[in-house]
Design brief:
- Helix 7 (147-159) runs parallel beside helix 13.
- The chain starts with 15 loop residues before the first helix and ends with a helix.
- It is mostly helical.
- It has 16 helices and 2 strands.
- The chain folds into 2 domains: 8-115; 127-312, Intergrase catalytic core (hpI Integrase, Chain A), CATH 1.10.443.10.
């Protein structure tokens, strides 16, 4: 269809999602239906993200917005919510649509540079190890009225949950389980639905128990911590954006870093030695190190023990 007139979205239409489809039609012409459909679907995801920032017109988008989107995609890759290849495709679509709309490459970015490759071996301590720093950031979120986000962050740090797992957790049921058994079985929101097929028991220490008590209160009569007026996609975009802003001001990183901090803390508890990522090398015996990695991988919801290296460091 191409341009339709007016000023919004560089003349491609009043609504960003529709304008993107018009821009793709302008770029590819007749045919290339599969390519256009794939770009259109990925463009809608960027449009949904932009709405969380109050952006409804492509003319409002600058390079910082695109780079922030890339950082959030990278965080989702680290959490196992997206593959590197799909995250790169999402950013490539933003390049294609904005380049077509604007008629220039001023906002062109490198998907590989922003998303990168998932690090398989952690070589530095997670910023989330410093509990006081994490607690201050969580309190700021509460003070801003973002109690669900604060609660999800606490659950990620205290129980090693992914963002999706913490968001979809039935905190009331988990609290009852923890009070009875001293541990919880994580089944909702797990990667690939793994939790429904394989038990994933996570121990609940005193601090984690307090986080569950708070989460149960925040949840109220709802099924989980996702606000009733938001879809999960909307909630995820809002939460990642809000937390990344607060995390930056407190020298923290995303939710995944809180999960890594949990893993490193568990490693110390199991072996009596700091994790290799913190100590700079393995100090525990090979036997204890292997045992810790098996336990941590299971608690984090991974089927392979070698994945633990991305959280606690090298076993060498």
């Amino acid at each position: 269809m191409g341009k339709v007139g007016g000023n919004r979205n560089f003349g491609y239409g009043k609504k960003m999602d529709w304008a993107g489809k018009n821009a793709l039609a302008d770029r590819y012409g007749e045919g290339h239906y599969a390519t256009r459909a794939a770009h259109a679907e990925r463009w809608q995801q960027f449009v949904a993200y932009a709405r969380t920032l109050g952006i409804t017109d492509a003319r409002q988008i600058d390079r910082s917005i695109v780079e922030r989107y890339g950082k959030e995609l990278a965080e989702q890759v680290h959490q196992g919510e997206r593959t590197v290849s799909y995250a790169q495709n999402l950013l490539s679509t933003v390049n294609v649509v904005l380049q077509t709309m604007r008629g220039d490459k001023a906002l062109q970015i490198s998907p590989a540079t922003l998303v990168g490759q998932r690090a398989h071996v952690r070589s530095s301590a997670p910023a989330g190890m410093e509990r006081d720093r994490v607690e201050r950031a969580i309190q700021v979120m509460r003070d801003k009225g973002e109690v669900q986000i604060a609660t999800v962050a606490a659950l990620a740090r205290d129980l090693g949950l992914r963002f999706r797992e913490a968001s979809l957790l039935d905190a009331r049921g988990a609290l009852k389980q923890a009070q009875t058994l001293g541990k919880i079985n994580v089944t909702e929101g797990t990667k690939g639905g793994r939790g429904r097929e394989v038990d994933r028991w996570v121990p609940v220490a005193e601090r984690a128990m307090q986080s569950l008590i708070t989460a149960a209160k925040i949840q109220g009569d709802a099924r989980n911590l996702v606000p009733k007026d938001l879809s999960f996609s909307q909630w995820k975009g809002h939460a990642h954006h809000a937390w990344s802003h607060i995390a930056d001001t407190h020298n923290l990183r995303g939710f995944h870093d809180l999960r890594a901090a949990y893993a490193c803390e568990r490693y110390l508890h199991i072996t009596g030695h700091p994790a290799p990522a913190i100590a700079g090398a393995r100090r525990a015996s090979k036997h204890d190190d292997k045992m810790a990695r098996q336990i941590i991988a299971q608690e984090l919801g991974h089927g392979r023990t070698d994945v633990a290296a991305a959280y606690v460091g090298s076993a060498k």
